Amino acid sequence: MAAPPRDVDARTAALQRPATEVILKTHTEPSDDLAMERRKATFDVNDLSYVLNGGKEQLEKKMRFAEVLSKTSWGDKSRRYFLTREEEYVGALKAALGIWEKMKSEALSLSDGALMRTLVDFPGGLELHIGMFIPSILSQGSAEQQAKWMPLCMGLKIIGTYAQTELGHGTFVRGLETTATYDKQTQEFVIHSPTLTATKWWPGGLGKTSTHAIVMARLMLPDGGGGVRDHGPHGFVVQIRDMDTHLPLQGVTIGDIGPKFGFGGVDNGFMSFDHLRIPRDNMLMRFAKVTPEGVYVPPPPSNSKASYATMVFVRADIVKNSGSVLARAVTIATRYAAVRRQTAPGPGQRELQVLDYQNCAATLLPLLASAYALTFMGEDMMGMYKKFEADRDAGRFEGLPELHALSSGLKALCTWTAADGIEECRRTCGGHGYSRLSGLPTLFASYVQNVTWEGDNNVLCLQTARYLIKALAGVKAGKRVEGSAAYLNDAATELAPSRRCAAAGEACWLRPEVAAAALRHAAARSCATATETLAAASGGRLVFEGAPWNSNTVDSIRAAKAHCVLVLHATFLDSVARLEAGAGTININTSTAAALPSSSGGAGGLPRLGAAAAGVLRQLAALFALDSLERGGGLAVLLEDGYMSAAQAGALRRAHRGLLAALRPNAVALVDAFAFPDYLLHSALGRADGDVYRGLLDMARGSPLNDTQEGPAWHEVLRPVLAARSRL
Amino acid sequence: MAAPPRDVDARTAALQRPATEVILKTHTEPSDDLAMERRKATFDVNDLSYVLNGGKEQLEKKMRFAEVLSKTSWGDKSRRYFLTREEEYVGALKAALGIWEKMKSEALSLSDGALMRTLVDFPGGLELHIGMFIPSILSQGSAEQQAKWMPLCMGLKIIGTYAQTELGHGTFVRGLETTATYDKQTQEFVIHSPTLTATKWWPGGLGKTSTHAIVMARLMLPDGGGGVRDHGPHGFVVQIRDMDTHLPLQGVTIGDIGPKFGFGGVDNGFMSFDHLRIPRDNMLMRFAKVTPEGVYVPPPPSNSKASYATMVFVRADIVKNSGSVLARAVTIATRYAAVRRQTAPGPGQRELQVLDYQNCAATLLPLLASAYALTFMGEDMMGMYKKFEADRDAGRFEGLPELHALSSGLKALCTWTAADGIEECRRTCGGHGYSRLSGLPTLFASYVQNVTWEGDNNVLCLQTARYLIKALAGVKAGKRVEGSAAYLNDAATELAPSRRCAAAGEACWLRPEVAAAALRHAAARSCATATETLAAASGGRLVFEGAPWNSNTVDSIRAAKAHCVLVLHATFLDSVARLEAGAGTININTSTAAALPSSSGGAGGLPRLGAAAAGVLRQLAALFALDSLERGGGLAVLLEDGYMSAAQAGALRRAHRGLLAALRPNAVALVDAFAFPDYLLHSALGRADGDVYRGLLDMARGSPLNDTQEGPAWHEVLRPVLAARSRL
To answer: CATH 1.20.140.10 occupies which residues in chain A?
Structure first.
């Protein structure tokens, strides 16, 4: 591009001069609105904030970390929304390496590292090294293998990824096509991609970063009769790049799969193999083994059950994260809705805060309730995980089917709630919500993958539904069911035609047991309906596969959702009671909460939730229940069933609207309590000081299109078209 | 970055070699699946395709244009998903200028130009020049002003934009703060931004492209007593950049507002004024005028009504576009769901097509029905617009309130349906839907702004609700209502406690009049509920402003939606009947359908929809109605009202599921009928040949991260960390 023709410097200098110089005064003072909101709160925000952040010390640490990170070269976010894909990739990798280095140099704990990763919020090429490669070697590798690989991993002498998904195969792992064929002569496995659809596709960090991968491939062993036998997918540690040149090894084709909706910093990759040979030792052999002679030693029978531990942990982690991410979105949207003013009710009057339009409150306050519900659920699921570990070590696996079913459905419901909720928050921000400077487009685009990965949400709901339908059939056959589905033991009573809702008037709907009873009835009925649909399609029997099952999934998925809503509501109330009793805290900040002590209150003991805050949280729990019924389809189920009358439905609606009004004064305080630093939110609209318009203008100045006044198209594209002429 | 250390070229060459060389054969042949689907269709696709594309000639022209455009430098899409923001901006501008040039050099019609813009699908800096600046001069400028500005506009000697929205003011136009103060001495207006929130924000093409803008500013005139009087917002043509240097004029600060969710090619801008002077003539003076002495001449009284024409046209255009865009998303997702296979029902069996899972069909088929519903609605709204023009020219404005109310609600409902539908389509594509190569992330991110611009959807629904509530009150007071809300004339009968749904059994629900009656009852009841809620809040009266109105918007918005669903269903059925009668066609391709003759069937006359295709469309209309009832909340309303019994609700559900199964064989044919060329879809998953996996791999190779084998981080970031070592 040719040099600019005239004295551009003076003009550019003029742009650098803040536009605010020419501005007299904003006649709205946005920060006043937030100050006013904060004065309206009926509880002490610190009281709730300490409990949600694992105590005062943890909260202060978070704020300190945010300050420190914002001043590092790799943690600075000022250009974050302006990066090209290549810059994003390199920048995210630098951030990951920066945190890794800081943890080493300052001897930080794993939980501190996790907190830093959350705050920097810039996933890159090391995600799967940390999140899948290392954990897989620890859980699936033999002692010798761990001794060999772990120092290389922890010293970052190699970078690994986890290559399972293929172009043609995702959720259905048994369909994987990549093969690992044993060659007894050389005692090697030959890794091969027999088809196009066998190409590994999606692994994070595979495209350009990883030197190694755990490759899931079908184990093919001599069958003793001159042929080969397929033992199904197993894991193999495979070096994929030359350590000197970083080029793919002979026999390996690797590349980046291209841009995604979000997650630009991660180099998700593709990889195919042309008869690549690896040593026999590289098969992960903690459980299943292959002898030098090529004989298969199957895993011990209990292993398949024990291996659920990782899955439960990952799901708990996802649920925990769903609450935290939704809380971030709600924080941004709620603060902005308190600052943004729209339409004066009359001449000379001040425009109204957007949050005072009922439809805005009816969007944001239930999402705020959901953010709390998901956060409490995540903490609770971490507890389930720990209990499972203890049970497993004691050889007890009775609770596994329910844990599997519940964690499946909760992963689905919580990620749907968070993903849809972020987008709803974005829309309540109106036009400015469409700007990336709001933070919400990036948050949504990066988060929404969660509804698909680690099991597509619909598929997971079907696993929950299968459990519920079997449980209900069992109850009818005289068995009892334990745990979250225990209410099915009373299905006959619950679903009797005479069963009626006990709510008498609007106030009744605020009582936790009335709302819980309605959610329970809706769940039981939904489960019964799914059972009947399936039975009708299976000729009276219950067939959980093939056409009868697959052609009747709509009602099954609904049953799974209704069950999980019930669990979320119960957990919400239990958690408030627990926090009020001073028994533990929540850590909303990092998803890897298991690494954190749940009693981190420091010398002063655990913080205890005060009565005022607990009361407000119980209002939120009520709103969660009523909103789930009213907008989630539960109302239609209850009316159809004759459980609820028209008068009760009307009372429920009034109670719902009343809660919106009752919670309105505490809206800003309830998001303030999450205590997300501005550094984490990185949002012009979500700033704690409410100075949103100055925030937008300041951030926009950094747009690369503003590097020159005339823009990148002037000299070569626009100038030849537009007639050169002075003022017309 | 340092040069690569070794012989990288040979390695790079290896990457260029398609990975498919090492691949034996895909054991699934995706294109077979689509061929199989196409054989299953029960109607002639061409028959429907001609009708949807304005006739055979128009369809062939579309295909020819797509071919031609794909070969231009500026229409080539191969790098479209890989561009940096700056490249997007320059590329989109080149495409816009390329089309402009082609129209001139080949003397193409405006409708051909619109078709090309649709196919190239790359909005850039000329959007508002074409869509707002020129139309505003034509509709608001005096004859002299048109004579002055139009040649400059059409010769592209200037580029204009439309600057209305400000940082602090969007939907509420009366709140704009920018001022235009008349200086009688110099006969100039002084354009000024008195506050930060007065900064113009969002206009497309403002950031770096436009030389001129129509600026909406408060007209401030001498009040005769030494002060100034505020006459509210008026439009002014303002030159903002120097024509020689393209630099902002003294007194104008301009910049790009930074990246958005989508729409990266458009340089939405900000602008503030520091006492910029413009000639008096630059106020648009077709209607209101200011004399040289500074005296205000108000517009003629009928003008405010006539000016609704533009608004109605823009909304019709948005609705038309909503159908087309949703149809694109459904095309991609439906083809992929027919090709993608997931989970074998038993050992040795082929995995099932995803479309055969009921929940997938239950997502995609109702969206397919909606795509048709929205397309028909858009065509119908163009008819309403033409009728309004004719009425206006005859001085008749009785239909305006209803047209205003209806077009508001339909804009809202249709854009919500399309935006949410695109994202639902994306999710049914599982993991690969998250790749931008699917086309769906870009489509969603660019489209979703439609729920906010041209009036926030919730605000628009409230305008519809206000009309409906007033209409119902009028009916109660003995007045009659005409048009789409005429059913409210019978509200007393409709809402009588004894009113019952006539459906007897599952088959009844397939009858259009039964479904329509249920939708009508739901709409009437929702309107009555909103009226009661408002009356309760207003102390018995109906107050349409302030707290009573703003604090009760949830039920109002529901009423507006229920009304619009009813209209969509009726229009669907009417359109099928009209097409079957050979009376007109649809043009699904361009949103500016008003420019197209609706009888473009060529010498052979209008194409006529065959009975087989019409029958399938009626099934789709039935699915649209039942799905709206079941998932849209209508069912709860009808049950609560006692209009529908539990048995009828059950029958409705079975009829809904039955329609899913009945429509399944025609799914691919129904999307094929839209006849979107692969060039438009630009999707690895939506290819007409179904070769999706090869498509993903081929497109991914173009990712800039694949420019080198070792990636952009190796030499400076990774190499210093990873120990140099050969194979471990």
So the answer is: 308-672
